[in-house]
């Protein structure tokens, strides 16, 4: 993957991009949050220190999914009453992007999908409610109100000043799942599958004592 470089509009330091289509990134030097506006980059805020976590994944971790190589280029971190999780933004070697959910040693990869029909509103959902998307029937398993904890690295959209975000997780009878994301004006649908850590063939991960 070719790398591109721009200067931080706040401190002037070089910011290297792992994914050329990034809409938002963070400066590793001054911690500015930077978004693309037309051809220019603008500072829109400053990242707070992210809560500590024990994930082996980090920015620049590499892996394989369905015979396609990817590199981790960013993340959104959430917290809720039972813990927290990371949504790692992945840039694939074919130019596409996806997400790697990382929650208490459980992993899943998903991709945003468009549908010809409007997605349900958050307040219309109920447990066990079913939906049909791309040849699978999904059942609502859990609805979570998560607290936005922060961002890091490169993202495909602006996401830097959220407070609370509703999510709905839906499951199939096999390893497939769906997530309805209500963080924006319109709900977003992500479809994916759960994976074992070893299946991702990750390298350049964080190392912990006694590993």
What is the N-to-C order of secondary-structure elements (H for helix, E for strand)?
A: EEEEEEEEEEEEEEE
Approximate shape: globular
Instruction: Report low-confidence residues grouped into runs of 5 or more.
Output: none
* % residues in beta strands: over 45%
N/C terminus separation? 29 Å
How would you describe this structure to a colleague?
With 211 residues, the chain is mostly beta strands. 0% of the residues lie in helices and 52% in strands. The chain has no helices and 15 strands. Strands 7-8-9-10-15-14-13-12 form an 8-stranded antiparallel beta barrel. Strands 3-4-5 form a 3-stranded antiparallel β-sheet, with no helix packed on it. The protein is globular and about 50 Å long.
Task: Please give a handful of descriptors for the protein shown.
0% helix; mainly beta; 3-stranded antiparallel sheet; 211 residues
Please render the helix and strand layout as text.
Elements: E1 4-7, E2 14-17, E3 24-26, E4 32-37, E5 40-46, E6 62-65, E7 68-80, E8 83-92, E9 97-103, E10 106-113, E11 130-133, E12 136-153, E13 164-171, E14 176-181, E15 188-195
Antiparallel strand pairs: 1-2, 3-4, 4-5, 6-7, 7-8, 7-12, 8-9, 9-10, 10-15, 11-12, 12-13, 13-14, 14-15
Quick summary:
With 211 residues, this protein is mainly beta. The protein has no helices and 15 strands.
